[in-house]
Specification:
With about 150 residues, the protein is an all-alpha fold. The chain has five helices and no strands.
């Protein structure tokens, strides 16, 4: 097992390789179809180095404590919202978005800007998909009611 200093060194190396790979990917995107071969080779070398560092970090990780008991599968949120009366569905959607926002705020001190941007994107995507599903369901139920039910 590696010391904390060795693990932090491996993590810093991995971060540096990742940053360099991202810069190379941006360069490759600017070239479009005519990317110079040396840039593609450098990207592949960085990916290999990151994979090797990931293996080294996994090998140096302290042994995990006993696994927590398996939890039962939660009910999908769409089923919960669709089970509500139509006039209460928007309240549930607003509540869900507020909970996602709380998760994002709690994440502020964690990791870095990339994680925060990922959380924002995931929250917005989830809210948009959920709102779309609920709106389609409401429209469908109104049409069904207008034409005599199911």
């Amino acid at each position: 097992m590696a010391t904390d200093h060795e693990r932090s060194h491996l993590m810093r190396l991995r971060d540096e390789h990742l940053q360099q790979m991202e810069r190379l990917e941006l360069q490759a995107a600017k070239y479009g179809l005519s990317v110079p071969p040396h840039i593609l080779e450098d990207i592949e070398e960085r990916k290999a180095a990151i994979a090797q560092l990931d293996k080294a970090l996994a090998a140096s990780a302290p042994p995990a404590a006993s696994a927590p008991p398996a939890a039962s599968a939660p009910t999908p949120i769409a089923e919960v919202i669709l089970a509500l009366p139509p006039d209460e569905r928007w309240h549930a959607i607003v509540y869900l978005v507020m909970e996602l926002q709380k998760d994002f705020v709690a994440c502020r001190g964690a990791w870095n800007m990339r994680l925060r941007m990922l959380m924002i994107g995931a929250a917005l995507f989830a809210a948009a998909v959920l709102a779309s599903v609920v709106m389609q369901w409401i429209a469908f139920t109104r049409l069904a009611e207008r034409f005599g039910g199911w």
